[in-house]
Protein: BTB domain-containing protein
Amino acid sequence: MQQDKDFWFDDGNIILIARGIGFRVHQGIIARHSTAFHDLFTVPQSQNEEKILDCSFVQLSDSPSDLRCLLRVLYDGKKYLFAGTKVEFSDVAALVRLAQKYQIEDLRDEALDCLKTYYTDEFAVWEVGMSRRCNISNMNVRMRDAVAAVNLARLTDTISILPVALYLCCLLPSHLLLRGIRREDGEVEKLSMDDLERCLEARMELLKANLTRISKAYSPVYSDYQRADCYGCVSMMDQLLAFHNQAVTGPFQSCRILLTGGEHDDDSVKLHACTRCTANVKAVNFTARQEIWGRLPNIMRLKIPTWGTKPQLNNSA
Structure:
């Protein structure tokens, strides 16, 4: 057994062993926060019980990094993670997993609230954050973390996280969805077969919606680019239409309809389209995002009665 560098107290009276790493900690501190640990520690021990350094020990199946993260919060307080500074997704995920397992409800709920700042069920929050490339959540998150987010939502029955998390899974390369995402601790996060099926089927629906958006935004058939004072925009929009149709290859480009704020809204501006045509592109993109957002649970074959009931944004283009 290797002693953990951060959590090995000489006056500790219980050793938690996670995959060969020992954490010598204080039984009272751990039991005070966790119902599961409290019950575990109160199980009568036999006189012939094996000990390490005169301490009782418990073998755990958790990863050392997850356990270290949990102990850091239990010893140093929740301010360690939730003090207004961004935290790593992996730390929040570890807290959700272990707080759920060891029945630390307040910590689990606070960690889930942190997840919800990114995997939101509010269109207004999405627009300010993901759509415009401005991460306003409390976490540093990568696109591939969506797989773990789906699994955490399933673990804790937090369905409000699922639509956005599954949508972001749709943007991942297929080999990552099928083979899973390897975490830093070596564990592999994979979607269940049901959720994998949801993503694969949703991709087709998202692709159709994205192609419709492209046509409405850039094709004269759906717009008024043919007006005399917009004549200069016609060839420009034709180029953008051709570009976006050709760019719809692979899952990210095909399904990125909810990510059309910011840089894609600015396409017509970069090419010096007139004010009216630029406003049309922005309006079409916004309407497409809003429409898909409203249908997202259905696209993902989820039943969330409260989805879309919170105040919506008006197009601020």
Notes: The first helix runs from residue 27 to 33. The mean pLDDT is 84. Strands lie at 2-8, 14-18, 21-25, 56-60, 87-88, 139-140, 181-182, 188-189. DSSP finds 14 helices and eight strands in the chain.
